[in-house]
Amino acid sequence: MRWKTTDYTGWGRALTASGDIARPERRTALEAILKDGLVPAIGMRRSYGDAALNDGGRVIDMTRLDRMLSFDTTTGILDVEAGARIGEIAAAFAPRGWLPAVMPGTGFATVGGCIAQDVHGKNHHKAGSFCEHVVSLTLLTGTGPVEVSPEKTPDLFRATAGGLGQTGVIVSARLKLLAAKGDVMVVTERRIADWDEFLVRLDASDATYTVGWIDATATGANLGRGILEEGETGSGLITQRGKYRKVPFNAPHFALSAPIVKAFNSAYYRRVPETGRTVVRPISDFFFPLDKIHDWNKLYGKAGFHQFQCVVPLGAAPALREMLEEIAGSGLASPLAVLKRMGPGRAGYLSFPMEGYTLAVDFPNRAAARDLAKRLEGRTAAAGGRIYFAKDSLAEGTDLGAMYPDLPDWQAEVAKLDPEARLATDLTRRLSLRSAQ
């Protein structure tokens, strides 16, 4: 297998790595690589920080192992290689009345990446996390292939689900797809006046898919205002689909200055009529709205950006409000801010979700933003919440034992499978995840 030395980044582009990358096209080529020892596997690098980086070492790019192997129309079980993208699965199966049970905010995420992060979607309050719909998976370990399932190998499954790729290389998986009414989304949009109304609406929502865009620049009586979207699958004709655009160059520093972001957010808030509205959208426009703008991460400039995402228990909502107040008062927030209600569903020792509220906000990579994110991490820990490894690039890891009480169980399982830490990445080293806390 040919190795190519290159520089690469995560989606946030604030953290970088340099090393050898191989891109096998067949499982036999992958197995040949691993005969010399385990190597971390990566996908489309849609994690924002350093989860897919191994600076100075080697990684295996799994994106050519992207075949859909078989589908059972009776059970809805899809057998698929780990490099397949979630958006491609949705596009292939939505017209046939099926969707991936859980989809993150980008269709470019691979199946292997979704398992390694145990991702959640706009239906977490109903469907739980991604790996709760994984029937089984094939894992290449230092001793060969292992079939992993919640029933037959529960400890290994829980260490692999959300386990950041540290138990082995995920080769393929059997996914239980969700029955869908069709290949479009019927979406109800309504303005939300403030933080208190947002929580009430989120708690009361019975829609299958629910997500809130929040104006993270609004302060005072408008703190927490935004737009609530509630969606259901449907069938019908979409006469006009959104055009794809590309950001051709890194935006200048002033493009995301506080006045410009505030003006944009105000206009975006008012795009929905006061009385609300119901619209029909293509599946991809609802689930992956930013995918239509290729290389949208360049909008943050050459220095890149960081995202802070946390979840706090239901009873800690006042603490989350205080975090939003600090974010809004900082003048650092971008237009990309999301608020969701989460259920209890999680499949792995290091799975992010807990029942509560999750807030995600993007910040340009500036010193003040980095300091703010670290303060928000401390507030999250004090509130009994946790941060999301798929988005993190700044945490120091001092509170991870409290955030993730199952961490010792994960460490013990990982140590059995990879005692030499060959699968370690920049993220696991930065947070000392594989060391005793």
Overall description:
This protein has 437 residues and is α+β, with helices and mostly antiparallel strands. Helix content is 25%, strand content 26%. The protein has 3 domains: 4-61; 68-180, Uridine Diphospho-n-acetylenolpyruvylglucosamine Reductase, domain 3 (2-Layer Sandwich), CATH 3.30.465; 184-400, Vanillyl-alcohol Oxidase, Chain A, domain 3 (3-Layer(aba) Sandwich). It contains 13 helices and 21 strands. Keywords: FAD, Flavoprotein. This is FAD-binding oxidoreductase.
Regions with little confidence, pLDDT below 50 for 5+ residues:
none
Q: Biggest β-sheet, characterized?
A: 8 strands, antiparallel
The residue fraction in helices comes out at 25-40%
Spatial strand sequence of the major β-sheet: 16-12-14-13-19-20-18-21
The total count of helices amounts to: 13
Keywords:
437 residues, alpha+beta, Uridine Diphospho-n-acetylenolpyruvylglucosamine Reductase, domain 3, Vanillyl-alcohol Oxidase, Chain A, domain 3, 3 domains, eight-stranded antiparallel beta sheet, five-stranded antiparallel beta sheet, 13 helices, 21 strands, 25% helix, FAD-bd_PCMH_sub2
